[in-house]
Write a structure and sequence with these properties.
single chain, about 150 residues, flat, alpha+beta
C-alpha cells in the first residue's frame, strides 16, 4: 500500500513525507505529507514579485485651488488676435489674417455633425473606421447585457 502512495506523490513531496498513520475503514495508509511553501518576496516597490500589489501610501488629501484664467475683454484684441494661442510667457497671440491668405480647403471643412455612415463612400478609409467603431459599440453593448 505504501508503494502505491509514494508512486502517486509528486517528486517534490517524496522527500518531505513524514511518517504518520491514519486508519480508514479497511485500510491503513501512510498519508500525511508536510508541505513546505516558500514565500517569495522582494524588497522592490512593487511588492510581492513586482506585481504592483504593494502597500498603498495614504496621505492627506488636500483640496486643489482653482486657477482663475484671465478673460480677454478688449473688443479690439478679440477681433484682431486669436486669444489664448500663445502658450509661452513671452510673445503675443497669433494675429488673424485676411480670408484670402488662408488655403481654400480651410473653408470647405465640415463644421456641423459628422455625416451618416449611409452617406459615406464604402471605398474610403473613413467609412471603414466608422463601421468598425459601430461594430465595437454593438459588441460592447451586447457583452454588457450578459447575465454573468
Amino acid at each position: 500500500m505504501l508503494c502505491h502512495l509514494i508512486r502517486i506523490l509528486p517528486l517534490s513531496y517524496r522527500s518531505v513525507a513524514t511518517c504518520s498513520f491514519i486508519t480508514i475503514p479497511k485500510y491503513e495508509m501512510h498519508t500525511d505529507v508536510t508541505r513546505h511553501a516558500v514565500k517569495k518576496t522582494t524588497s522592490a516597490a512593487g511588492g510581492v514579485l513586482g506585481l504592483g500589489r504593494g502597500k498603498k501610501k495614504v496621505g492627506k488629501v488636500s483640496a486643489m485651488e482653482k486657477k482663475q484664467l484671465p478673460v480677454e475683454s478688449d473688443p479690439e484684441k478679440l477681433v484682431n488676435y486669436v486669444c489664448g494661442s500663445n502658450i509661452y510667457l513671452t510673445g503675443e497671440d497669433v494675429k488673424i489674417k485676411e480670408d484670402r491668405e488662408y488655403p481654400d480647403w480651410l473653408w470647405t471643412l465640415n463644421r456641423g455633425a459628422a455625416p451618416r455612415i449611409e452617406e459615406l463612400d464604402p471605398n474610403t478609409k473613413e467609412y471603414w473606421k466608422r463601421v468598425r467603431a459601430a461594430g465595437m459599440r454593438r459588441n460592447n453593448k451586447l457583452r454588457s447585457m450578459r447575465k454573468f
